[in-house]
Each structure stands twice: as structure tokens, then as C-alpha cells.
Write a structure and sequence with these properties.
The chain is an alpha/beta fold. Helices cover about 30% and strands about 20% of the residues. The chain folds into two domains: about 350 residues, Alpha-Beta Barrel (TIM Barrel), CATH 3.20.20.80; about 90 residues, Immunoglobulin-like, CATH 2.60.40. It holds the Pfam family Collagen_bind_2.
Length: about 500
């Protein structure tokens, strides 16, 4: 008995035994841009498919049990990135969080509230134990640019040191956590375009009293510089733009921007041609990965601005699948799913915003939320870094956007993916763009992740394929017999 450690030291060892395995298991390799410029990888060279979820209000709107339930659910469903605000959109500075904390003392950005930011660290660490990366928005756009929203505006062109100091503090809080990604922006423009004053979001900025050429980029530059200083290294960095726009035009030359982000959004009706926006960014030099950071949310009212017509209905799972598959096969490095009730955590504590038709707990299990894993598995089932978009695979040209097909293939032609958005849809596919020889044909079901064998064809010249008569949507998978790939589910 005399050889036993004193009680205090025994307690320390007990805690270390509990914590050390957790720390080791939580260590995720950082995400970076692959050398080819169009894809992402982990620091140890493994492919990384960005499958995100917009949990914008996660930190502010959930208690510990709710947050854990959300993170576990999305991890189980195969998501890789959670996009979350530090300073939440809906009055997230002045109104206390679900745990009763506000981010700043006296709403002063120079006086961070340690308890609020300690909770942020807990969320990031819990996500890591589940294999999730967290794309942190240091401040939703209305805290910086504020053409509209609750604000308050905290960071201005005349207080740039405050933005940098806040970034430095935030970076230091999560220092050493390799599952952190920085996402600036937050549904607001980085600069207004004086040549298009009547177009959104320029019109909103001007209506709010800003000059037609107002430029907020200096604020974001200072904030990201502070983030990198506090974090101690450069983490993957991107920017979340307003609906209907992307970052390549206004931020593409910023040295801190690693990815080009788009938001096809919810206000353009069905079948917004995201494939054109992705193709534009994919063709830019120098090459950068690109992706849609906010396609139409599942169960979001269709085009609700300036006033929603209920006859337009809601975006449902088919709408979500169409935009996600089209953007990825057009060349994106991944995609972000979103649900209208989840981003705001609508429920018993948080009032519904913009006609949400259910609460967030129910929404976690909606069809498209569970089906996104099948997109990830399909892309990861074939050579990852050599996947390229190839619109020339599709010979048939559809004038109806709802029937638009998008195609991707391996650089060496060992496989091809062609997304058919409707059932019983016929299209000519140029098999000559794939490796010569016999091709194995399968129809991949994006609802179930299973594939139907459709035989063997000779890989030369155009051939007509017709999607199955139910569905409604399908992915035509063509594999060189020499490659011997098997689609998921077979």
C-alpha cells in the first residue's frame, strides 16, 4: 500500500488514461489542395471528397446533447465537413446562445467571452472524434458587410486592427486542431460591382446605403491574416458567397483563397445551371478546386423572395440530387448539402424562419440527407484524382434544363459517369471518348446506392442509352472491362 501514488496523482493518471486515447483517435490529417489543382486530399495524400452540411447556427442554437446528436447523425450518414458560424446570423451577437452565453462582453469584439469560445473548441474536438472537419465562418457576413441582416456590424474599414485581433484570438483558440477549415463570407458579397447596380446582391448593398463600388475585401484580408497568426499555420481557406454568385470573379486572385465557392441557392427556381458555373471555374488558370457551397436546400420554399407563392412548393430530394450530382460531375471537388430546418435548427427553442415545414430533428433523416452518401461512394469508387469533367461524352443536347445531362470520366478513359435527371430518358453517349474495347454498363441508383447490371457494349462511337423507367434519376456507369471496377452495391 505504501507504493501507491498519492490520490491527486492517481486522479491525474486516471484522467490521462481517459483523454489520451481520445486525443490520438481525434487527430485528423489536415485537408489541402491536391497538386493537380482540381481536387482535395488529406495531408497524408488520401483523396478527400467534400460532402458538407450547412449547420450554420450549430454553435449558437444547440445545447450539448442536441449538438452531439446532430454531429453523430451526420457522421453516420457519411458527411465529411460541417459548415458552422462562430458569430451566428440571427442576432447571434446580442442574443445569448442555447447555453446562455454571448460571444463578446458588452457586445464588444475586442472583449471575447471565454466561455462562448471554449464551447466552440468543444464542438470542434467532438467533431474530430467522429471524423468530421469543421468549416468555421468567423463571422456571418452581416457582421462585416451588412447590406442586410441583424448584424450588428462589428468590423469596418476604419477598424481593421479589430478584425485582425479577433481573427488572431479565434485562431489561437482552435490552434493545433487539424480538422479546422476557414470559410469567410457568409451569404454576403466581398465587393459591390458598380457596372451592375441593379443586380442582386449589388442592389441590396446600394439600397442599404453603401456606394456602388464598396469594397469589404480589406476587412477579410485582415481577419484571415489574424486567423493564420493565431492558428500558427495556414488552414484550407475559402469564402461563402451570396446566392447566385461565386468567388472567382471578385476573390479569385486573393492569395489566401484556396478554393472557389459558388452558391446556386434557392431563388432561381428549379434546375439552376450550376454545371455552367462549375465549368467556368474549372477552366480558370491557375487551377483551383471549386464547389457549390449552398445548392437548393431540401424542403426549402422555391424562390420565396420577395414574396413566396405557395403554389411553387418546396425543393424536395430529387431537386437536391439533381443539383448535387450535376455540380460534382461538372468538375466540383465535392458539394454541400443543406436542409432548410437544419441550418437554423428550427424547433422548440428556435422559431421557424422562411416557412420551414418541419423541425430540425425530423429533418436530419430526410431522403436527400441520407442519399448524399451514395454520391460520395460513387466518386470514391473509381480513380479519384484523374476524374475530369467531359461534356463531350453526351452527344444529345437537351434544351430543357430539367433534362440536362452532365458527364465525368477518367483521364485515361477507364470509366465514365453520366447523370440522367429523369427516367425513360434517352441520350446518345460518345463511347469513343473512353478506352477502346468492351465496356461494362450499369445504372447506379442515387436513392439506394445500388447498381443494375445492363450488359456489355463495345467502346467505340455514339450509342444510345435509356434510363430505367422508374426512379426518377440515374447515373449511367461505363467501365472498361480491362479496368475491372465494380460499382458500389454490387
Amino acid at each position: 500500500m505504501q507504493n501507491r501514488l498519492p490520490l491527486g496523482r492517481r486522479l491525474i493518471w486516471f484522467v490521462l488514461l481517459l483523454v489520451l486515447p481520445l486525443t490520438v483517435s481525434a487527430a485528423l490529417p489536415a485537408v489541402r489542395v491536391h497538386a493537380g489543382g482540381h481536387h482535395l486530399e488529406t495531408a497524408d495524400g488520401r483523396p478527400f471528397f467534400w460532402l458538407g452540411d450547412t449547420a450554420w447556427a450549430l454553435l449558437h442554437a444547440t445545447d450539448r446533447d442536441e449538438c452531439s446528436h446532430f454531429l453523430r447523425t451526420r457522421a453516420d450518414q457519411g458527411y465529411t465537413v460541417i459548415q458552422a458560424n462562430v458569430l451566428a446570423e440571427m442576432n447571434g451577437v446580442r442574443r445569448p446562445s442555447a447555453l446562455g452565453e454571448k460571444p463578446f462582453l458588452h457586445d464588444d469584439p475586442t472583449q471575447p467571452n471565454p466561455a462562448y469560445f471554449d464551447r466552440l473548441v468543444e464542438v470542434v474536438d467532438e467533431a474530430a472524434t467522429l471524423g468530421l472537419y469543421v468549416a468555421l465562418l468567423p463571422a456571418w457576413g452581416d457582421k462585416v458587410t451588412a447590406p442586410w441582416g441583424d448584424g450588428p456590424r462589428l468590423f469596418h474599414l476604419d477598424n481593421l486592427p479589430v478584425a485582425r485581433a479577433y481573427g488572431r484570438y479565434l485562431g489561437a483558440k482552435v490552434r493545433g486542431r487539424s480538422n479546422v477549415i476557414w470559410m469567410l463570407g457568409g451569404d454576403r458579397p466581398a465587393v459591390l460591382d458598380p457596372s451592375r447596380p441593379g443586380d442582386y446582391p449589388n442592389s441590396s448593398g446600394i439600397a442599404a446605403g453603401f456606394p456602388a463600388d464598396h469594397d469589404w475585401r480589406p476587412i477579410w484580408r485582415e481577419m484571415i491574416a489574424g486567423l493564420h497568426e493565431g492558428f500558427g499555420t495556414k488552414a484550407l481557406t475559402l469564402y461563402h458567397p451570396p446566392g447566385g454568385s461565386g468567388t472567382s470573379a471578385t476573390l479569385g486572385q486573393e492569395p489566401w483563397l484556396d478554393l472557389n465557392g459558388l452558391q446556386s441557392g434557392h431563388g432561381g427556381g428549379h434546375d439552376v445551371p450550376i454545371w455552367e458555373n462549375i465549368a467556368h471555374d474549372y477552366a480558370l488558370t491557375p487551377a483551383k478546386p471549386t464547389l457549390d457551397l449552398e445548392p437548393n436546400y431540401e424542403d426549402h420554399p422555391v424562390s420565396p423572395w420577395p414574396r413566396w407563392d405557395p403554389a411553387l412548393g418546396y425543393f424536395r430530394d430529387h431537386d437536391v440530387r439533381k443539383q448535387c450530382y450535376r455540380s460534382v460531375l461538372a468538375g466540383a471537388c465535392g458539394v454541400t448539402y443543406g436542409h432548410h430546418a437544419v441550418w437554423q435548427f428550427a424547433g422548440r427553442r428556435n422559431d421557424s424562419i422562411n416557412y420551414a415545414d418541419r423541425d430540425w430533428v425530423d429533418a436530419l433523416q430526410r431522403p436527400a440527407a441520407r442519399q448524399m452518401l451514395h454520391l460520395r461512394r460513387l466518386i470514391e469508387s473509381r480513380p479519384f484524382f484523374t476524374r475530369i469533367p467531359d461534356s463531350a461524352l453526351v452527344v444529345t443536347r437537351e434544351t430543357d434544363r430539367s433534362r440536362h445531362l452532365v458527364a465525368s470520366r477518367d483521364e485515361a478513359g477507364t470509366y465514365g459517369f453520366i447523370y440522367f435527371p429523369t427516367s425513360d430518358q434517352s441520350a446518345q453517349i460518345d463511347l469513343g471518348r473512353l478506352r477502346p474495347g468492351p465496356l461494362h454498363v450499369r445504372w447506379y441508383d442515387p436513392r439506394t446506392g445500388f447498381a443494375r447490371d445492363a450488359g456489355i457494349v463495345e467502346g467505340k462511337g455514339p450509342a444510345t442509352f435509356t434510363s430505367p423507367s422508374f426512379g426518377p434519376d440515374w447515373v449511367l456507369v461505363l467501365d472498361s472491362m480491362a479496368a475491372g471496377y465494380r460499382a458500389p452495391g454490387l
